[in-house]
Write a structure and sequence with these properties.
heterodimer; A: four-stranded antiparallel β-sheet; B: mainly beta
Amino acid sequence: AQTVTQSQPEMSVQEAETVTLSCTYDTSESDYYLFWYKQPPSRQMILVIRQEAYKQQNATENRFSVNFQKAAKSFSLKISDSQLGDAAMYFCAYISIQGAQKLVFGQGTRLTINP
Amino acid sequence: EPEVTQTPSHQVTQMGQEVILRCVPISNHLYFYWYRQILGQKVEFLVSFYNNEISEKSEIFDDQFSVERPDGSNFTLKIRSTKLEDSAMYFCASSENLAVTYEQYFGPGTRLTVT
């Protein structure tokens, strides 16, 4: 079974600085998708960024980018120019493209932005 | 922008009672899911639903749980006889077409409190 691990329960960063959230996963499959979801205090999860495993190029969405290392099974999220609105729980998630359609989530990292 | 909606936002019930949590997925989506998040824990997959039948369910999704799409818009999760340990945040999600993006869009959640 696939597992996702986020080893940083909490992180903090100064406003306008850059922060990197770590995620590792375990799978025997070669084709899958990885996601970062943001869960603000309002608790609705919002998709931040998506990475297809077959793509070598790292995904980027404005201030958010990932460092996808397939061989190392690592998928970190970098937030540049942190803003107060970035404060939230961040979840890394995995989905297989074969069979199972479920998202497998990590434990989450709570990100605090210091003004 | 289309959103997944859920009602109620908070449900309090007594142990042993039946509850129905309601979701309206995004209108052109074909795949529907329920996840739950016990306070302080990771988000866990419960069940996926496609073409009017369950496509996958987790070990958590036992005989006390059922899902239904009673009409063209609603997607419900029923817990027949609630237990204290069912207290959690329940999230509905929907996906347009897994073969395209594998993205799942989440609703705001229903907080279920069993007393």
